[in-house]
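My main concern about presentation is that the manuscript never shows what a single data entry looks like. Each protein is reduced to its one-letter sequence and a matching series of backbone shape codes. For the editor and my fellow referees, an illustration may be useful. For illustration, here is how one protein appears when written out as sequence plus structure tokens:
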Amino acid sequence: MSSAVSLDSAATGGPPPIAEKADITAWLGVAAGAIGSLMATLDISIVNASLPTIQGEIGASSSEGTWIATAYLVAEIIIIPLTGWLERVFGLRRFLMIATVLFTAFSVMCGLSTSLTMMILGRVGQGFTAGAMIPTALTIIATRLPPQQQPIGTALFGLTVIMGPVLGPLVGGWLTENFSWHYAFFVNVPISIILMVLLYVGLPKGKMQLGELVNADWLGVIGMVLGLGGITIVLEEGHREQWFESALIWQLSAVTLLGFIMIAVGQFYAKRPVIKLSLLRNRAFAAVFALAFVLGAVMFGTAYVIPQFLAAIADYNALQAGKIVFLSGIPAMMMMPLFPILIARVDLRLIVGTGVILLAMSCYLDVALTAQSRGDDFVVTQLMRGLGTVFCMMFLNQAAISSVSRAEAGDAAGLFNAARNLGGSIGLAALATLQDERWEFHRWTIHSTLGANDVRVQDWVSQQAMNYGGGPDGLAAAMRSLDGMVMRDALVMAFNDDFLALTIGIVLVAPLVLLLRPLPKGYHAKAAH
């Protein structure tokens, strides 16, 4: 277990590094992997702070706007487990070149979008191509760096994965406020050009193995598209379609079930299943999977909910909201250099447990938001959330790899990343649905307490009507003002329910930390596909 090179590196055709120190071309390859993974994770949330502006321009409602984020995540979930197979088919460098070119084209498509449908199609394309850049970054580290230098590359990768989602709203907000939301997508063009140059120089040319197309788990691939896509649509559209009163929801649920059945069948009949679900029989790895799922919901959920709250309640613009989200990245930047030291000297369960406690506390403290809350009210909780995320994310990744055999390390890392993104996708959809339902619930609950015969209510309405000029028009304006206040307070309460749901989710999985397997003594950070 002391070697830092995953066996998956051999499967991709890349020989393990033999030099004691990597040369400049190897580091350029690692830089390419880091830039690719940063761009892929950054684009998950780059639209979050700009969503109110984008929704207004393309004619989408707030709940429909969540599709702009979830479409990307679902596509990433599907492609991540397929990257090992696609590397073998096309060769690593050629595969990443193709992915980068297509990612750039889909980014331009998003930037030129004039409708929700066009935007969603572009985001799905972005997710499919960007998802390839996340696990392949670790493959580059495992195949281009010698074991003693891999902890540096792994820490660099970890920083990009954690910083991407929190940096996204800041970059997107700055571009939206200073230029236009379209540039949140166009910015990928120059970055992609740089990435292609680094890929060409830093990675060796690999051979294609088109025969691998025959060995693909096509049942699993199609099943993932149907199952994951179906369940996300059900969660997104269920509230608007009155759940199972709608024939559409029944049909989508059937498609989801069919997809999951196809994935299960692929486990038994495919030579190499697209997702090796048998790993979940391993108690330690199952604990990692569940923790990663909830962590993804917290990471991507809060990066979505906080900008929405600040825009709707505090009247923040995209840049101001992005700055608040970015606060959680500060602890990640500060702690990442200590990652190789901590992982070798501190019990993994202690670090992850501390991270889980910090995440639970950060969400619980945000349950008490009011209509007067502003960005300052998120400073402490965002810093706590950032520290909790870096403790959980980086060390759970190592726990995933170390809890299985060397031959299964690549499958474990892929399933871990899929769990994180799946949690983010389902979490976003569930939070948006919960917010809509609780907003409506709280609105009518508050209205029911405002009795028409209540003297205080009558006095307030009369006073407001006079302020608006009196008469029938003044009375109508006063009633609209009252309803606006009720809707505002109800929305704040709905946001609080979102944070309470996240808190409960974290608390429920917290005991799983005890099932994690301690890392071997003298363990060093591993890079695995």
